Hints:
By secondary structure, chain A is an alpha/beta fold. Chain A contains 13 helices and twelve strands.
Amino acid sequence: MSEMNELLKVDHLRVAFDSDRGGTVGVDDVSFRVMPGETLAIVGESGSGKSVTALSIMRLLGGNSRVEEGRIMFDGRDLLELDDPGMRSIRGNQISMIFQEPMTSLNPVLSIGFQMREAIMLHMGQSKKEAHATAIRMLEKVGLPRPEKMMNEYPFALSGGMRQRVMIAMALSCKPKLLIADEPTTALDVTVQAQIMTLMQELCREAGAAILLITHDLGVVAEMADRVVVMYAGQVVEEADVFELFEQPKHPYTQGLLKSIPRIDAANDEQLESIPGAVPARYESIPGCRFTNRCPYATDRCAKEMPLLSATGEDHFTRCWEVRRAENGLREEEDSHA
Amino acid sequence: MHNPKDPAVPLQPLLALENLKKYYPVRKGIINHTVDHVKAVDGVDLTIYPGETLGLVGESGSGKSTIAKLIVGLETPTEGRILFDGQDISRLSPREMIGLRSELQIVFQDPYSSLNPRKRVGDLLAEPLKVHRIMPAKDISREVDRLLELVGLPKNSRGRYPHEFSGGQRQRVGIARALSLKPRLVVCDEPVSALDVSIQAQILNLLKELQRELGLTYLFIAHGLGAVKYVSDRIAVMYSGKIVETGKVDEIFREPKHEYTRTLLDASPIADPRQRNKRRAFHSH
């Protein structure tokens, strides 16, 4: 796919935090692209840096953290170079975001209608009356009953699923090109999750918006994503098409992760393989691959030298010395046969 | 009912819930009069046989955690009986409950809040042994080592505090503590929900291993169907305070009979993108 088409391109992003014990690097060398209209999932465990990446794109990082390196190109502009008014015209307009707990992202003392109108008037330049009509139309779209009445409700009166529907209505009312959804259904029951995910995808497809879905749930990834970025300890370790990733995962971490999920369609006697150990503390000071201590294939080189994310197939990227060695070995073999 | 491990031998249930109810009053007004009840558990019958794992699934608010609390005596039922080994334990005095503690233990969801942060792991594990006077004081140290080894923690863990451990290790401490009194029934209330995916499998495998080794009986409560399927022999599905379906694991997953069970199964994401198209039809809102 050509460089010109991509909607979002994150390039060698590095984010550092100030903590009591000095500076630490939360996200390091993160690169990926989102094409218009596609769903890209970033999957990783807690602390892997997936939310930090999302917040960096929105320029919503807290005061104790900063982007040290990299570019975030959106529609041809580097978001990191924009001034605050410039960023405000992108945020909520071109890129919208929904969060895990809609209760904390809605203002508890303002009615749903007020909050929706406010956003629409600000971003779309509509009059109060127009914004009111738009808001009602959006609430109807996300399947909320009696949208006129819903406008006068306050967030506490709504269930978690209804609140997330309101957030989706609000996020999509300004016709963004990209919707960033950070664990949008983690706080919801599984039956509600299925409804919300489908709704989000349908509405985005209809509006031509791309989705950047941040999640820890590989089941959700399998259901929703076109492409997947796997993060581990602050880095991207693998990126591939969703079918390819689930059928032929290359990074040992991705392989381990896929083997360790209990599936409802598994055979009864199937044993789960778990990844031994845990994510190392203060992984940013590890010179080599950050998965070395848990990896069944680790070599001396892995512990000493950091592998780069490199092409290991068509539109498939992996950060692993051993995968690269295997691929190169194959290629050399093919060459010698030729 | 027959022994799930050996169908030829009929079994006495280790635990039986009979018409169990727990209503919480809803109070209103200045005199705080009761205007209504929340029926958290509303007439539940359930049996667990020795050596089996009964999975209890349901969504938040369905009453599954209330059942856990009722069984271990953290709540008193409004109505109904809880028979442990044939004896009604639902209204025991705190003193009587102490004796039962060594038979009946619980592992909680959140290992962060269920361990005293000011005690070293060695003391956390030794405490129940001392309280229940399980063994002479001189043997306790060796027993703590044995427990640590049992759950796969290094021996030097005993001098460390809970915050020095990762979530998965902390859950191992929680399990070691529950097992220290050699209970017959362990209630696992969402034991892996707070853990990362790669750690969940470690804990699920540990629970299965320990069951084989020690002949434990589990009530395994969770909302994630995958985990429940992996560890359970039988499953009970709970919906708004009632059990709507029980059955053997493969029967429930192959032929769910109750409408709600079907809804739950259809909504649970499967980690296989090839299966999504045939499932799409259901997910309309």
